[in-house]
């Protein structure tokens, strides 16, 4: 029994030592924010200063940046200055899509003795994408009997950016027949619909071509356009009309049983 307790005590003490060693390795965290698409070599921050390390220490202890899960490395250390700099293009849209937060997880590794520092890089969105419609031409066939207030859902424009840098509003080319309504969903996405405000008349206009523009809220602002083509379909809204009045064929004194008329319906 004494041997068993002695063994358990030794194992527990070993576990405590290992746990302490692991905690010692993860010596501290540092966090930075950087805009996407920064040029290679751009300074993110002075990691030596932020962690209280001397610049000479970085070289003597072979400082380097490693990534979690063997992912691509987007930054490196300038051993002469202690700066953390951009190593490769950081495309937030490709890395994180529409996620509200985009964080790169990396580690600063120092040797002799081994020491690790977690590095979090928050990638900020910039307005580097314009709204884009999936179609260059949106077509509608609308009968001229359509009543005022009729609504027609329009194709949504997509923007790879997030927040205010994505689509904020739509503009429809000024015209006398249609206006536009924009509805904002709980997710922030915006849908638009075309609303008829003046009846169509095929006899006056058989086809309308209107420009629809989507605009984002970035600075500088970006936009995308598509064409709406409305083909006006005929409705039976006109009665037949004679081109001239009835003309009697017989003159006075004709004793025929009834008048014979000539007429035309052009």
From TrEMBL:
Residue stretches making up the Cadherin domain: 77-133, 134-242
Pfam families: Cadherin, Cadherin_2
Gene Ontology biological-process annotations: anatomical structure morphogenesis; homophilic cell adhesion via plasma membrane adhesion molecules
Keyword Transmembrane: yes
Membrane-spanning parts: none
Keywords: Calcium, Cell adhesion, Glycoprotein, Membrane, Repeat, Transmembrane, Transmembrane helix
Main location: membrane
Subcellular location(s) of the protein: Membrane
Designated name of the protein: Cadherin domain-containing protein
Organism of origin: Anabas testudineus (Climbing perch)
